[in-house]
Amino acid sequence: MDRCDECLFVYSTLDDGEVPQRLHDLAGRYPAALHGAPDPRRRPAPEVWSPLEYACHVRDVFRVQGERLALALRVDEPEFPPMGRDELVVSERYNMQDPEVVLADLATAAHGFAARFAALGATELARTGVYPWPRREARTLRWLGRHTVHEAQHHLLDIRRATGGRTAGGA
């Protein structure tokens, strides 16, 4: 996955040094997106997450990617376990969580991952781990950073679509 046809994100156009700032910027757009949703807990269709569920997912993506980054710095080519995204929506009761707490935790997790990524040098960025999605494949930490930016950007689009484009934080 090097390009997303839905949100038009192209991995190769993002320089390593831009990743931390993009993560900070994207995290800063989630409050407007979530507050702009008339009902952040409403799913537009049974199989489509609510804006709050997307925000919870992105918070957890930042956390999991931080754990994966740390693991890849300790272990040569580790296996990154799947995060269980669909299971977490149910087991963590995403739609029952407090939106303000979710937004605060999302910002904290984004800034933490951004700081860890910013500290990486060329050697660390080239380290790899076996990423489980969309297909099992060895990926560099450089790709991990870019993919994390993509996740945050893409899910802002998902929130906008879930609210019929009525959010202030559109992608």
Question: What does this molecule look like?
Answer:
With 171 residues, this protein is mainly alpha-helical. The chain is built from six helices and two strands; from the N terminus they run αααααββα. It has a two-stranded antiparallel ribbon with strand order 1-2. A hairpin with a 5-residue loop joins strand 1 and strand 2. Helix 1 packs parallel to helix 6 and helix 2 runs antiparallel to helix 6. It is globular and about 45 Å long. The mean pLDDT is 94.
Question: Keywords for this structure?
Answer:
2 strands; single chain; 6 helices; about 55% helix; globular; mainly alpha; about 170 residues; about 5% strand; two-stranded antiparallel sheet
Query: What about the largest sheet?
Result: 2 strands, antiparallel
Average predicted local confidence, pLDDT:
94
- Could you tell me the number of beta strands? 2
Which runs of at least 5 residues are low in confidence (pLDDT < 50)?
A: none
* Helical amount: 40-55%
What is the overall silhouette? globular
End-to-end distance, in Å?
20 Å
Structural class based on helices, strands and sheet pairing? mainly alpha
Q: Helical region count?
A: 6
Strand-residue proportion:
under 5%
